[in-house]
Specification:
Elements: E1 7-12, H1 15-25, E2 29-35, E3 40-45, E4 53-58, H2 62-67, E5 76-81, H3 85-94, E6 98-99, E7 104-106, E8 109-115, E9 121-127
Parallel strand pairs: 1-4, 5-9
Antiparallel strand pairs: 2-3, 3-4, 6-8, 7-8, 8-9
Length: about 140
């Protein structure tokens, strides 16, 4: 079997508020916003993403509402890769995105943790060129 991740859901308190953050502040593209009667099918993706989408899923009951902001148990659970860390970081700061730390250089690249308005932790990352291992290594 072959496959790929096509989408993953993030439970949010309100569709439009989430769109304001993900599209307005992070600069994601709105892919779909379909009225389905009692709910909407809302997907977004970073510019350049070709396969995977983020489904913004409005909480519909107390259990889902309780999960907002803690869907990964307090760990960084989402990873936004960019090709120009400094430009993305500056733009996000100017738009009011809250970072939990100053940017840091790691062996794998440049990174800083930020939060969405609901408390979910994200890594903003610019990766270094990966070292490709050959079979002989």
């Amino acid at each position: 079997m072959t496959g790929h991740f096509s989408a993953f859901s993030l439970v949010v308190p309100d569709y439009d508020d989430a769109l304001n953050f993900y599209v307005g502040k992070l600069g994601f593209r709105l892919i779909e916003d379909i009225d389905m009667g009692d709910k909407r099918w809302v997907t977004v993706a970073p510019n350049g993403a070709s396969e995977t989408k983020l489904v913004l899923a409005q909480a519909s009951d107390p259990e889902q509402t309780a999960a907002i902001g803690n869907q990964t148990g307090g760990r960084v659970g989402f990873f936004l890769h960019v090709d120009d860390f400094d430009a993305a970081h500056s733009d996000m700061l100017a738009k009011g995105v809250k970072f939990a730390e100053e940017p840091r250089n790691e062996p794998y690249g440049k990174v800083a943790v930020f939060s969405d308005p609901y408390g979910n932790q994200w890594d903003l990352l610019q990766l270094k060129e990966p070292k490709i291992l050959t079979e002989a290594q």
